[in-house]
Amino acid sequence: MEENIINFKATVNGLILIMREEDDFDTVYENIERKLESSGRFFKGASMSVKYRGRKLNAEQEKMISELISKKTNAEIKSFEEDTSVPEPSADETEKVIEKPKMKRVFFKDLEEGVTKFYKGTVRSGKLVSFEGNLVVIGDVNPGGEVIATGNVIVMGSLRGMVHAGADGNKDAIVAALSLQPVQLRIADVITRPPDTKETSRGLVPEMAFVRDDLVYIESFLPQYK
Amino acid sequence: MSEVIVVTSGKGGVGKTTTTANLGTGLALAGYKVVLVDTDIGLRNLDVVMGLENRIVYDLVDVVEGFCRVKQALIKDKRYEGLYLLPAAQTRDKTAVNPQQMMKLCQELKEEFDYILIDCPAGIEQGFKNAIAGADRAIVVTTPEVSAVRDADRIIGLLEANELRNPKLLVNRLRIDMVKRGDMMSIDDIIDILAIGLIGVVPDDEKIVVSTNRGEPAITDDKALAGQAYRNIVRRIRGEEVPFMNFNEDQGFVDKLKKLFGLKAN
Q: Is the CB of residue B75 less than 8 Å from the CB of residue B84?
């Protein structure tokens, strides 16, 4: 079940039901029912007025939800109407936004085909190359250099710096390089670093990193190296 | 045709000043008119390494601020014909000069000299920006250590961002025995990361310390391995093709035999 489809908020005057505009009525209804199933007993015997916001409801729908809440909570619903007051952004909410800027509901999805930046040259120490989309570096990424993209990152050279693919949350993003030896490799919110044991250089072995079950897997994408 | 060459590294203590002193002396010995400019204002060393400390009257800051003419501040090195030093101020800091002033100064010096070698301070701040402002070419000095190579990489990026294309790499203080044991980065390892052209490799040499303390550049020492390396670099600056030194001098009898029969390429 997807969270946040509906939300209840208690106020001095009663309860506010917060819905999302994009969900259809049936989904909303179902979710209210399910939510009250788990937390409805809390309101037992109370008497309150309920307001709703976030979505328009017609008279019939208002009546349905009102009855549903009444039935599930055993509370007396004095009124059920649209909340017309402008919601104040509570301190709690603004804090959340600052804390987790990557909690955007929509992240970059065009991994198969989409907007792509081609960066020609070596990404040297202290240099940051970032792009909202897929990123291809035609050259090396040196230690101390950083490449960040919201899509896939492909390095046509040795990747020895820091790399972050799917930077706004897409775990399907991949990192591929002709030689994959990053200082740190991040895909969405999964962060890995290579093992401390120093690996002897094997020359250029093209490899690809991807995430499965919150773990980063690295494998060769050319059959002759497998 | 005169040239302004900046000697830089990012990291401190890798041998920028020693390199500047030796290359400058070498170019002067080859018959060019050379001036060494110390831009490490507040932490000057080049005058000490050149043994000219006690002759400083005016300095770089005096020149750019207009207290004296360039010629008054230049110190002539009596040992080597055609070698001059423009010392840095010791009682000021890097903000006393700005890049525009340095560009103007370099233009002025170009009229008089064949080679202007600029000794850059460590770091990437104002001092570095001043030093590279008027430069035509750059020599990036590094030692075979990861930290020095990392900083060199940053510097190369900054040089390229400032339109100083194709900087040349000078690897200083290489210890062949350690490289052979695998305890030190090899030239190939360094080139692999930095991906720029090599202008020379200077082996680690005790004689450098001795000569630096005495104020006599090691390039004049015929017996010193480092001196030979610097002489080769001077020839490369002048545009000659000089093969890189073979440091495997103390190779064993078997190696020599192999070489004799062509089994070993180097």
A: yes
Residue A201 DSSP code: P
Q: Min CA distance, B100 vs chain A (Å)?
A: 25
Torsion of CA A76, A81, A83, A85, to 10 degrees: -100
Number of Cβ within 10 Å of residue A170's Cβ equals 19
The answer to whether the CB of A106 falls within 8 A of the CB of A72 is no
| Residues of B in Cβ contact (< 8 Å) with A178 | none
Q: What DSSP character marks residue A72?
A: H
What predicted TM-score, i.e. pTM, was given to this entire model? Answer: 0.68
Q: Which structure tokens are listed for B195?
A: 């991906």
Burial class (CB in 10 A: 0-12, 13-18, 19+), B139: buried
ipTM: 0.71
Nearest to A129 by CA among A109, A104, A154: A154
For A37-82, the pLDDT digits (tens) are 777 666 767 777 888 887 777 888 888 888 887 777 777 777 888 8
The alpha carbon of residue A33 and the mean position of all alpha carbons in its chain are separated, in whole angstroms, by 26
CA of B150 to nearest chain A CA: how many angstroms apart?
7
Compute the radius of gyration of chain B from its Cα atoms.
Answer: 19
**Which amino acid belongs to residue B142?**
T
pLDDT in tens, B27-43: 999 999 999 999 999 99
Q: Where is A94: in which H helix or E strand?
A: helix A91-99
Question: Mutation test of the interface with chain B: which of A119, A122, A123, A125, choosing the one with the most B Cβ atoms within 10 A?
Answer: A125
Chain A contact for B150, CB < 8 A? Answer: yes
